[in-house]
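Q: Got a minute? One more chain.
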Amino acid sequence: MSVKKFVVCCFDDEAVLFPAVKQVRKTGYKIHDVYTPMPIHGLDSAMGLRDTSLHTAGFIYGISGTATALGFISWALTYDWPLNFGGKPFFALPAWIPITFELTVLFASVGMVLTFCYLCQLAPFVKKDHFHMRSTDDLFVLVIECTDKTNDTEVSQFLTGMGAKEVTVQYKETGWWLGRYDNDRRPFEKPAEAVS
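A: Always. Here it is, folded:
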């Protein structure tokens, strides 16, 4: 895992946050994320985020469920084990509609939930960093990812001039991390006493 440097600033009001986000984007700094205690309408467009493609994934999962149901039923009832149910033909498509619909819904719903959890890195065993503990309470937290060319002192002064109440520089590991919130040691890592 790589360790990255972030500049974390806190705002008291969303009326101050919106112009700051727009100005940060206009200046060219890379916004890692914005954490707010409530949903804010229009913040995603101010951050320059594109629309989600989760509906496209749902369509693909649904079509996969439909193809799986129709493929398996037609193979089982016309080739592998053809049975005559009340004089119906072997390929009786209207009789297969309920199970086809159920598998379509099952594949789409389970696939979309798993895709959403993967994209948002949500899992019980994945450690997510909190840049500021009051971000879910009453503060609006803007996190800027620093690159090699970013001067964190200039960024801090810029954000303070935009109305930030608190600006800190933090180093965090990025990506998936198996661990727990109350323990920074990785599950397969030996304790510090055993190493020395």
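A: The chain has a mean pLDDT of 83.
Q: Perfect, thanks.
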